[in-house]
Amino acid sequence: MNGILIIDKPVGFTSHDVVAKLRKILKTKRIGHTGTLDPFATGVLCMLVGKATRLAQYLDKDVKEYIATLQFGFETDTGDLTGLRIADCGLRIDEIADILNKTDWELVFTDFRGEISQIPPMYSAKKVDGKKLYELAREGIEIEREAVKLTIHKLELVENSEPITDNLKLRVSCSAGTYIRTLAEDIGKKIGVGCHLSALQRVRAGKFAIEKAITLEHLESIVEFGELKSVLVSMNNAISHIPEIKLSAEEVKKIENGSQLETTVNSIEGTVRLIDQVNNLIAIGHLEDNIVHPRIVLV
């Protein structure tokens, strides 16, 4: 049982909770995930099963896309709805709505698109000197954090037929490691109205979209009827963005033994996907000067 499951994470579950649930459903311990989601968030969570856990480094840097709901009027200590109210703008809902409706959002978003710097929030799993920031935050400790570079590929309003009141829905496509909570707070500061994230749904992680995701309950039914293969993405398909080299039966044996291969492939270089004649993923290798060096052997 090796492959990738695209789970629609429910609200209230941590990513670790999903791992624990899958271990019970699939009756296997070898399960991991890419791209952690906060408990209040929902949506696409890529779960790695069996040997696919070794592919995490090739999937966790994928571009992510979210539908984020921003609540204006006050900030929280966590930057989202789970935190304590710490700063209030002092405006009524109708006053906030007036500001939001008069704001030139295209102009505001211009400052947040492309490569930007972002300071990781204290309530995050980022480690500093071996300790997670949220552990320090829970102790009432706030430390200086270095800004990190990231890329916002898309930032736009989600179409809404109803008049804007005190919240907005945004579509955000961004590089891995982006904190949408921090983005929400920064947008609030930009227009002078406190803001926090009240809902978040990840709708895409790399090639995997929410339309293909399944709930944990649905997965249980699928497994019960012995149809897991119908939803298990093959390892080869999961990393199909990596250039491929098709191996002969003799070359497969060499790779299985950890031997390097000579190749006449000249159009690519760097990380390559090594597959057999029926498209099974055999290994991940590195191609340089027409020599393939196996890095991760999966058979």
Briefly summarize what is shown:
By secondary structure, this protein is an alpha+beta fold. 22% of the residues lie in helices and 34% in strands.
What would your notes on this structure say?
This protein is of the alpha+beta class and 299 residues long. The protein has eight helices and 18 strands. It has helices spanning 15-26, 93-102, 105-110, 133-138, 180-191, 216-224, 235-238, 249-256, and strands at 3-9, 31-34, 42-49, 64-72, 74-76, 85-88, 114-118, 127-128, 131-132, 148-157, 167-174, 195-205, 208-209, 244-246, 261-262, 270-275, 281-288, 291-297. Strands 1, 2, 3, 4, 7, 10, 11, 12 and 13 form a nine-stranded mixed beta sheet that branches. The chain has a five-stranded mixed beta sheet with strand order 14-16-17-18-15. A two-stranded antiparallel ribbon has the order 5-6. Helix 1 runs parallel beside helix 6. It is elongated. It starts with a strand and ends with a strand.
List the helices and strands and how they pair.
Blueprint: E1 3-9, H1 15-26, E2 31-34, E3 42-49, E4 64-72, E5 74-76, E6 85-88, H2 93-102, H3 105-110, E7 114-118, E8 127-128, E9 131-132, H4 133-138, E10 148-157, E11 167-174, H5 180-191, E12 195-205, E13 208-209, H6 216-224, H7 235-238, E14 244-246, H8 249-256, E15 261-262, E16 270-275, E17 281-288, E18 291-297
Parallel strand pairs: 3-12, 14-16
Antiparallel strand pairs: 1-3, 2-3, 4-11, 4-12, 5-6, 7-10, 8-9, 10-11, 12-13, 15-18, 16-17, 17-18
Helix pairs in contact: 1-6
Throw out a few tags for this protein.
about 300 residues; alpha+beta; 8 helices; about 35% strand
